[in-house]
Write a structure and sequence with these properties.
Largest sheet of chain B: 5 strands, antiparallel
Number of domains of chain B: 2
Oligomer: heterodimer
Helix content of chain A: 25-40%
Structural class of chain A: alpha/beta
Strand order of the largest sheet of chain A: 3-2-4-5-7-6
CATH architecture of the largest domain in chain A: 3-Layer(aba) Sandwich
Number of strands of chain A: 20
CATH superfamily of the largest domain in chain B: ACT domain
Number of helices of chain A: 23
Number of domains of chain A: 3
Low-confidence stretches of chain A: none
Mean pLDDT of chain A: 97
Radius of gyration of chain A: 25 Å
Distance between the termini of chain B: 29 Å
Number of helices of chain B: 5
CATH class of the largest domain in chain B: Alpha Beta
CATH topology of the largest domain in chain B: Alpha-Beta Plaits
Radius of gyration of chain B: 18 Å
Distance between the termini of chain A: 79 Å
CATH topology of the largest domain in chain A: Rossmann fold
Strand content of chain B: 35-45%
Largest interface: A-B, 18 and 21 residues
Shape of chain B: elongated
Chain lengths: 579, 167
C-alpha cells in the first residue's frame, strides 16, 4: 500500500505506543500536523518550544515511557537545544521530531533553516537527518530503540518538508512495518558478568563501613524494589542522590537521604567516612563528590552502571560492573545469599552507631520564623509535604528552592521527584510538571519553583489551563536569584551583583489569574496551611501560590566549591555547637 | 619517534558506518571532551557500508580508556581497536615542495635515493617529492628536507593494519 512521509510518521509514532506529543507547529513541519488531526494521539500545544521539550521530559520522568516533542525547523529547533541537553545529562528518554526545510534547500540559508543535526549532535544520544521518505518508519523505530535502551537519552529526528508533504512525489513510498534494527554499532550490554558480581559481593562481605551510593540509574532501570531488597538483606545504609530521590523510601530506617553540596550532614559524612561505596547507577558528579581528590579517601569502590564510560572517569573503581543496574542488584542479592551461607558479614554495629550519632547531632535545621520575616521556605515545604497526598509528584526548578524541596520533602515512592540535576536548567519546573500531569492525570502534581525560575517558563500555565492539565505551583518568592545571592553573601563579601528581582513585579497572583489559573498570595505563616488545602482541593484549573519567603535564608548544609566533603558546613546555629 | 613519543600517542583504528556526518560526530566528540587528535585519516573500506578512521590520539589530554569508551558510545561507531606500533604495520604518505636551485638538485636526489622516495614534479627553483613509509621514516625524511626550505608540505596522517601472524 502506498503511503506518504507524514502519514507514515503518525503511524510509526502510534506503533511505538505514543499517547501524547508536546509540540508547536510551524512552516517546515506543517505537512505533519495535517495527518495528526486524524490520529488518536493527543497533542499538547505549548507556548514555547522549550516548554515542549521539558514537558516531554517530565512525562518521561513520571511514566518511564519516552517523551515525544515535535516542533518546526530553525528557531524552534534551537529552542529545543536546552531540553535536549537537559535530557542528555539526566539520561531521559526523549524523541524529538523537528521539521527541516525541503531537502533541495538544505545548505542554502533558506527561511527558518538551521543545521539542526549539527547543532544538536553534542546534546543528543543520536540524531538523524532523514533524506528519503521510505526511511521514516525504520528511523522512528530506531529512534525509540536508541532513546529507551542502554543508558537512555534524547534522540532527534530531522524531517525535511518535502519528504512529509503528500503533494510532493518524494514523500510517496510503499508502506512497510520495520522489523528489527540495523545498528551494527549499538549493542548495549545489559547482562552483568557474574565474576564482577562475585568480586563485588566479596568486597561487601569484608567491608566494615559500607554505604550504598544510589543514583538516577535506579529509577531508569526500575530497580527501586531490588535496591530495597539488597539494602535490607545487607542491612546497609543508602544515600539517594538528587537524581534518585524516591528511588529508596525516605521513611526507611536505612535511608540517609541526599548527599552532595547541599546534602544532609549524615549522607555527606557517611560517604566520606565509608570504606566501601556500593555505587549503583550513579556517576560521581562533582556536586556529590566535592573536591574529587578528597572524596571518600578511605573507600574502595564498587561501580555498577550500564554506561562503561562512567567507570574510572572521575573515581577509580575497584570493581566495575557493566550492565542493567536492576539485573546487577538481583545478581548481588543472589551472590550475597550464597556467601552468607558460608559466613556472616562483619560486625558493623560501631559504624551504625556512628551514623545514628550524626543523624542525632546534625539533622536538617532552620531557625523558626520570627515576626517581621518573610515565610520560612522550609516551613512552606514541610506544610506542602504534610498536606498533600503521599504519592504527590513534585517537579522542581533549579536553585535554593530545589535543594530545600529535595531536603524537606519525604519521597517514599519512586517517580515522585522530577528535577533538572545535571544541566541545572532554571525554568524546568512548570513545563516538567505539566508533562508529568499529562502522563499521570490522576496524581497531584506540584511544581516547586523559585521566582527567578518561574519567570523563565510560566507562560506554559496557559498551556496547562487550555489543555486541562491542572498542576499546582508553589512559587517560593524571595525576590532574588536566591542561590546566586547566597554565594555572593558567603563568597563575595556580601557584594550583591544583579541578583535582586522584585517580589511584586510581576504580580504573581494577577499573572496567574491572567493565564486562567487560580492565584493565591501567602504572606503570613498562618495562611500557609489554608492556602495549600485550598490549592489541593482545586482540580479544574492550575493553581499558583505566591509564597513570600525570607530573602536572607540560606541553604544548609553546604560544601563550599573547591572544598572536600569533610569541610561540610552545617547551619550556623549548629556550627556554633559543633566542636 | 622515541619511546616517550610512543607512550604519548596511541593509534586507534575505528570502523564506522559510512553515513553522512559520521566524521563530524567523531571530531565533535574529541573537541567537546577535550581529547587531542595528533592525526586522522579516513576513507571507505572494501565494504561500502563502512569507513575506517585511523586516529592518533594524544593520551596526555585524556586517558585512552575514556577516549575509547566515549567513542564507542557513538551509535555509528562499530568497532575500535588500538594498534600498538609493535603489532602493526604503519604507513604514512608525505608530499613536499622543496626550494632548490637547479644546481643543487643533486643533493635532493641523494636524499630521494637514500629514502627510496619519488620525484613528482620539477620546477625551475623547486622540486616536489613524495615518500610513503613508516611515520618515523617519513619524519626523518622531512627533517632532512627542511634545511633546503620547504615551500609546502602535506602528510596524510598514519594508517595502520595489524601485523600478520607467522606462527
Amino acid at each position: 500500500m502506498q503511503t506518504n512521509g507524514g502519514k507514515a510518521l503518525m503511524k510509526s509514532l502510534e506503533a511505538e505506543g505514543v499517547e501524547v506529543i508536546f509540540g508547536l507547529p510551524g512552516g517546515a513541519i506543517l505537512p505533519v500536523y495535517d495527518p495528526l488531526i486524524d490520529s488518536p494521539m493527543r497533542h499538547v500545544l505549548v507556548r514555547h518550544e522549550q516548554g515542549a521539550g521539558h514537558m516531554a521530559e517530565g512525562y518521561a520522568h513520571a511514566t518511564g515511557r519516552p517523551g515525544v516533542a515535535m516542533v518546526t525547523s530553525g528557531p524552534a529547533a534551537t529552542n529545543m537545544v536546552t531540553p535536549l541537553a537537559d535530557a542528555m545529562l539526566d539520561s531521559v528518554p526523549l524523541v524529538c521530531i523537528t521539521g527541516q526545510v525541503a531537502s533541495g534547500s538544505i545548505g542554502t540559508d533558506a527561511f527558518q533553516e538551521c543545521d539542526t543535526t549539527g547543532i544538536t549532535m553534542a546534546v543528543t544520544k543520536h540524531n538523524f537527518l532523514v533524506t528519503d521518505a521510505a526511511d521514516i518508519p525504520q528511523v522512528i523505530h530506531d529512534a525509540f530503540h536508541i532513546a529507551t535502551t542502554g543508558r537512555p537519552g534524547p534522540v532527534l529526528v530531522d524531517l525535511p518538508k518535502d519528504i512529509v508533504d503528500p503533494n510532493n512525489p518524494k514523500s510517496h513510498f510503499e508502506d512497510y512495518d520495520p522489523t528489527g534494527h540495523d545498528l551494527p554499532g549499538y549493542n548495549p550490554k545489559v547482562e552483568p558478568d557474574l565474576e564482577d558480581i562475585r568480586a563485588a559481593a566479596a568486597l561487601i562481605m569484608e567491608s566494615k563501613r559500607p554505604v550504598i551510593y544510589s543514583g538516577g540509574g535506579i529509577l531508569k532501570a526500575r530497580a527501586a524494589d531490588a535496591l530495597r531488597e539488597l539494602a535490607e538483606l545487607l542491612d546497609v545504609h543508602v544515600v539517594t542522590t538528587l537524581m534518585n530521590r524516591g528511588g529508596f523510601p525516605d521513611d526507611h530506617p536505612l535511608c540517609l537521604g541526599m548527599p552532595g553540596m547541599h546534602g544532609n550532614y549524615t549522607a555527606v559524612t557517611a560517604l566520606q567516612e565509608s570504606d566501601l561505596l556500593i555505587t549503583l547507577g550513579a556517576r560521581f558528579d562533582d556536586r556529590v563528590t566535592g573536591r574529587v581528590d578528597g572524596f571518600a579517601p578511605g573507600a574502595k569502590v564498587i561501580h555498577a552502571d550500564i554506561d562503561p564510560a562512567e567507570f574510572h572517569k572521575v573515581r577509580f573503581a575497584d570493581v566495575a560492573i557493566q550492565g542493567d543496574v536492576r539485573l546487577t542488584i538481583e545478581g548481588l542479592i543472589r551472590a550475597i545469599r550464597e556467601l552468607c551461607g558460608t559466613g556472616a558479614q562483619p560486625d558493623r554495629s560501631a559504624w551504625k552507631s556512628t551514623v545514628s550519632g550524626w543523624q542525632e547531632r546534625f539533622p536538617l535545621f532552620y531557625e523558626p520564623w520570627q515576626e517581621g520575616q518573610g515565610l520560612k521556605p522550609q516551613y512552606v515545604l514541610e506544610q506542602l509535604r504534610d498536606r498533600s497526598p503521599d504519592d504527590t509528584i513534585v517537579a522542581s526548578g533549579v536553585g535554593q528552592h530545589q535543594m530545600w524541596a529535595s531536603q524537606y520533602w519525604k519521597f517514599n515512592h519512586p517517580y515522585t521527584w522530577i528535577n533538572s540535576g545535571g544541566l541545572g536548567t532554571m525554568g524546568f519546573a512548570v513545563p516538567a510538571a505539566i508533562g508529568a500531569k499529562a502522563g499521570m492525570p490522576d496524581r497531584t502534581v506540584w511544581a516547586v519553583d523559585g521566582d527567578g525560575c518561574f519567570q523563565m517558563t510560566n507562560q506554559e500555565l496557559v498551556t496547562a489551563r487550555n489543555e486541562n492539565l491542572p498542576i499546582k505551583v508553589a512559587v517560593l518568592n524571595n525576590g532574588y536569584l536566591g542561590m546566586v545571592r547566597q554565594w555572593q553573601e558567603l563568597f563575595y563579601d556580601e557584594r550583591y551583583s544583579e541578583v535582586h528581582l522584585q517580589p511584586d513585579l510581576p504580580d504573581y497572583k494577577m499573572l496567574a489569574e491572567a493565564m486562567g489559573c487560580v492565584g493565591i498570595r501567602v504572606e503570613a505563616p498562618e495562611e500557609v496551611q489554608p492556602a495549600i488545602d485550598r490549592a489541593n482541593e482545586i482540580d479544574d484549573r492550575p493553581v499558583v501560590i505566591d509564597f513570600r519567603t525570607e530573602a536572607s535564608e540560606n541553604v544548609y548544609p553546604m560544601v563550599p566549591a573547591g572544598k572536600t566533603n569533610s569541610d561540610v558546613i552545617v547551619h550556623p546555629t549548629q556550627e556554633a555547637t559543633r566542636k | 619517534m622515541n619511546a616517550a613519543h610512543n607512550d604519548r600517542y596511541h593509534t586507534l583504528v575505528v570502523r564506522v558506518e559510512n553515513k553522512p556526518g559520521v566524521l563530524a560526530r567523531v571530531a565533535g566528540l574529541f573537541a567537546r571532551r577535550g581529547f587531542n587528535i595528533e592525526s586522522l585519516a579516513v576513507a571507505p573500506t572494501d565494504n561500502d557500508n563502512f569507513s575506517r578512521i585511523t586516529i592518533v590520539v594524544d593520551v596526555e589530554s585524556a586517558p585512552l580508556e575514556q577516549v575509547v569508551k566515549q567513542l564507542d558510545k557513538l551509535i555509528n561507531v562499530v568497532e575500535i581497536r588500538e594498534l600498538s606500533p609493535a603489532d602493526s604495520v604503519e604507513r604514512e604518505l608525505m608530499i613536499a615542495t622543496v626550494e632548490v636551485e637547479a644546481a643543487e638538485r643533486g643533493q635532493i636526489m641523494d636524499l630521494v635515493r637514500i629514502f627510496e622516495a619519488r620525484v613528482l614534479n620539477v620546477g625551475t627553483s623547486a622540486m616536489m617529492v613524495s615518500l610513503s613509509g613508516s611515520p618515523t621514516r617519513v619524519s626523518d625524511f622531512e627533517q632532512l628536507l627542511r634545511p633546503f626550505g620547504i615551500i609546502d608540505l602535506q602528510r596524510t596522517g598514519k594508517v595502520a593494519l595489524l601485523s600478520l601472524d607467522r606462527t
